[in-house]
Amino acid sequence: MWANFLFAQTIKGKVASDGVALPGVSVLVEGTSNATVTDTEGNFVLNNVAQGANLLFTYVGYKSVSMQADAQSVMQVNMVFEAEKLNEVVIVGYGTSKRKDINGAVSSIKASEIQGKPFTSIDQALVGKAAGVNVTQNSGTPGGGISVQIRGITSINGNEPLYVVDGTPVFADKNNDSFSFSALGGGSGQTKNSALAGLNMSDIESIDILKDASATAIYGANGANGVVLITTKKGKKGKSTVSYETYMGVQQVINFVDVLNLPQYAKYQTKVLELNGEPIPYQYQKPDLLGRGTDWQDELFRNAAMYNHQLSFSGDKDGTRYYSSINYFDQEGVVLNSNFNRMSVRLNVDSDVKPWLKIGNNVSLSRSTQKVVRNDDRGGLVMNSLRQSPELPVRYADGSFAGPVNGLGSSANEATNPIALAEYNNAKNERYKMNGNLFADITLIKGLVYRSELGYDLNFAKSSSFAPAYTLGNVTELLNKSFKQQDQSYYWNIKNYLTYDKSFNDKHNFTLLLGQEAQESRYEYLSGYRSGDFLSSDFPNLNLGDIDTALNGNGSGRWSMTSYISRLNYGFSDRYSLTASMRADASSNFGPNNKWGYFPSLSGGWTVSNEKFFEPLLNTINYFKFRAGYGSVGNQNIPANRYQTILTLTASPFGGSSPTIDNLGNPNIKWESLKSFNAGFDIDVFNSRAKLAVDYYIKNSSDFLTKQINDESNQSALNYYLNTGKIQTKGVDLTLNTRNIDSGNFTWESTVIFSKYKNELTSFQGQGKSLLGKVQFDLYTITRTTEGQPVGQFYGYVTEGLFKNEAELAAGPTQEAGTAVGDIRFKDLNGDGKIDSKDQTNIGSAIPDFTYSFTNNFKYKNFNLSIVLTGSQGNEIYNFTRHYIDGIYPGFGDRYGNVSTRVMNAFEPGVNENTNEPRITLTDPNGNGRISNRFVEDGSYLRVQNVSLSYNLPSTIFEHSIFSYVRFYVNVQNLYTFTKYSGFDPALGNLDQNITLSGIDLGRYPVPRTTSVGVDVRF
Fold it and tell me: What is the DSSP string of 30-70?
């Protein structure tokens, strides 16, 4: 005792949470009664503290912290919300629940996990963060589409989840298209955008993902694909805070496709000319003397800048909590003439008007502009950069753009100067968005709260493009073309519900929810097109075009729904828990025969570790809970009024117009159905240093809303919508959190996520009918979805190497009249001695065997290092780009186009026979370019998804200044990808979110590496 007294110390320190001072925190010397509390600035002074003693910091709603006393400096203590404990409050839809009481499959992501990351939209932040959630960018276009699948494939109609922002739904699959280049001629390319690109990342407080039907059934008809609940920041108790956040970054394409440089191209062209019996030009006769020529990829891709600025204010004053922010985000695209920028403001306010009345609002306004270029198409800029000849310059000596001429440069299939096209084709999307809600909570009696809420999501968009007339060598566009479109949509919902909480005898806990909801969505578009002699590209007004070329478009739609909801949560003695819910929806999309859908769920949990018999194991196994649930949800994803016969007016050959049937009504169509079962357990061991969550699930989807597929003998029959088909998906999700090292100033924590699923279309429309996935004006069938197989299987011919000699050719099956030695040998699957359409089969799948992520967080004093690895194993890619650049025949019909370096290893009799690259031909008489497994590649990858290093300045530096928190950081996104795939990026996603076109590379806009530096300052 005397020793402790003689060496007693005075300890000073400050307690905060993410830079915000915490007043009233209890500070206790462990094992003694010596204690104090922090003042209004979070500071504390504690006398008579023995050397080596530990201090315990506790505060209601925050995780307790134990630290060794340090008299050598002012202690800096950071406390976090109970998010890491079982009492964490999780948003579950129409209310909240404690983590320990949740029986369904729910994952949560906190703001600290995505802070300072250079994401354009919130859905990008989900990558590698939750088991069973697969996120891929469909395109690297700034603001472009994201594919998010929760627990695999649910429907053939769409698999994007429902997003709910502060209680207001945002639909990912509706009204998010960008400009389609087909309006100006040619293919459309990717047109889907992220539904969340208009929302500001820095405003996010938490993201909760509901993955199984027992959790999503409360959302009924909109919850079939899972639900992502996004909660934005609110004012918190404590002093008011002013925050400024900024980062700037640079984006780079880090992987290039191998095509020929000029010396290689000269050698290749020499072979092509010799095949055609043409003389060899002088410039090709000594190829090794040539320079490298034009590197079109290097010319098209640029180092692109990214900026983000955010100013926010938050606090609590006299019972009114507020959070307000203004944000500006600007992102250049790595492809020339593409970019995205957004300005947004937010105001979240809630106020305790009376002890029994709380009112509030959350509102966000944003304006975003996006410049898009044509890609994911044979006429896209990326594809052109691969196909154009390295012999052609970007510009001539006079500064004008070069173009292909006879014998120089590619001019077929829309392949011309991609740099010129990037400048000429100017497409812009401008979007305005208002999203939010108003609410009031009225406490009627103790434990009984009535909530009334109005939510809204309003969108207005303008799209425009002007393509000028031009001449680039042999490529001529004779007409100026101008296209404009305006879209407007609005969604609203009204919710009224009662929530009653009651506890009995400290053992029985009830929460009962009863409510009603009404919602409606409307949209309309108006478009116009003209071509002709416009004055200039600066004046693309439609009235300056030729009136005889005018084309107009107009369309609208709406749906509405009324619903009744109920949910009961019951817990007994922190050991047993039960959740039951029921939702009834009536949709305008269905006729009176099937207007109503009913969606029940039931889940239960048993916390074994709270049983008396488990007490001897608690020192090792700190927490152990079994969970199981079953639920039903629906899908109404169908155009309005399809249960009715719809007529449309079309031009008559006799003049005027006449009505024709646009839709043949089916009064019996009804909801798609998803019934799912989930079972799992949660276990914490070794003082919660390791936490494991495992879930197994079975999903059975049925009654898909799809059009009748006509028999081949009756293709002219009228199509109509019907309910048909079943998909079964089985899978397992695993999440392991470990605290590997926790010693004083250094901590190391890890998270491992593993997900695996299999699906099968168990039935469809019978009679061998299939869903076909087609690309390039529907000329090429890439996938087939048929009974007994997974969704979206690649479909084509199987190759068996090459015919190496005449004997092999004579012994092989009959293929084509022009088949010769050096051609691809295709497998005769049915053994009839010939190769025809009957020899096509499944040749691969984009569905991975499993996906995974590995996150490591290191903290040393004020330094924080985070490393995130993500990966996919066993998925395959159909590299359609290779149809154009593999040199199967020159440039896919264009003899002067560039090709892949693979052609340097092409078969030549007596010269190069030990190869699997087919001979070079002028016309491909064998059909070497047909859809086959030759173009199916292994898409497995391991990616260094993110590396982030940050440093928090010690608060002692600015003790007497206006600053309360300063953080510097550097961040690298998409650092490096380990893969065998020969294209730009193996993480492809779906073409325009079409599940039957997953894993197909059509000249995709690359996803860049982004390096950024930033600072967060709070006052």
Answer: TTSS-EEE--TTSEEEEEEEPTT-EEEEE-TTB--EEEE--
Q: Using CA of residue 987, residue 992, residue 995, residue 1001, what is the dihedral sign?
A: negative
Query: Do 408 and 895 contact (CB within 8 A), yes or no?
Result: no
Q: List Cβ neighbours of 397 (8 Å cut-off, separation of 6 or more).
A: none
For residues 497 and 442, is the Cβ–Cβ distance under 8 A? no
Q: Tell whether the model's pLDDT for residue 852 goes beyond 80.
A: yes
- The pair of structure tokens assigned to 516 is 């009603």
Cα 413 from Cα 422, distance rounded (Å) = 17
| Rounded CA separation 2/9 (Å) | 14
Q: How far is CA 580 from CA 213, 214, 512, 602, 632, in A?
A: 12, 8, 10, 4, 12
Q: Which tokens in the block code for residue 258?
A: 């191998």
The pair of three-digit structure tokens given for residue 1011, joined into one six-digit string? 């390096």
Output the six-digit token pair for 365. 């306004």
Structure confidence by residue, pLDDT tens digits, 391-415: 999 999 999 999 888 767 665 545 6
How far lies 761's CA from each of 225, 725, 792, 874, 999, in Å? Answer: 17, 7, 10, 20, 18
Q: Which of 134, 381, 308 lies closest to 1010, judged by CA?
A: 308
Residues comprising the chain, all counted: 1019
Tokens encoding 736: 């392991």
Q: Is 833 buried (19+), middle (13-18) or exposed (0-12) by CB count in 10 A?
A: exposed
Least Cα distance to 34 among 14, 74, 4 occurs for: 4
The SS3 assignment for 660 reads strand
Task: Return the sign of the alpha-carbon dihedral for residues 657, 661, 662, 665.
Answer: positive
Per the DSSP assignment, residues forming a β-bridge with 470 are 477
Tell me: pLDDT of 949 over 60: yes
Side chain identity at residue 95, one-letter code: G
Which residue's entry shows tokens 């279309």?
761
pLDDT for residue 3:
41
CB atoms within 10 A of CB 580: 17
Contacts of 450 (CB under 8 A, 6+ apart): 441, 442, 444, 496, 497, 498
Per DSSP bridges, beta strands 470-472 and 475-477 are antiparallel
DSSP 953: P
For the entire predicted model, the pTM comes to: 0.87
Predicted local confidence at residue 261, as pLDDT: 95
Please count the CA atoms within 13 angstroms of the CA of 434 that sit on its side-chain side.
Answer: 12
Q: Output the pLDDT for position 4.
A: 43
**With 50 as the cut, is the pLDDT of residue 548 above it?**
yes
Distance in angstroms between the alpha carbons of the first and the last residue of the chain: 44
State the Cα–Cα distance between residues 363 and 380, nearest whole angstrom: 38
What is the secondary structure of 90-154 as a DSSP string?
Answer: EE-SSSEEEGGG--S-EEEEEHHHHTT---SSGGGGGTTTSTTEEEEES--STTB-EEEEESS--
Closest CA to 806 of 820, 788, 790, 786: 820
What residues does 363 pair with on adjacent strands?
347, 436
Residue 3: its H or E element:
helix 2-6
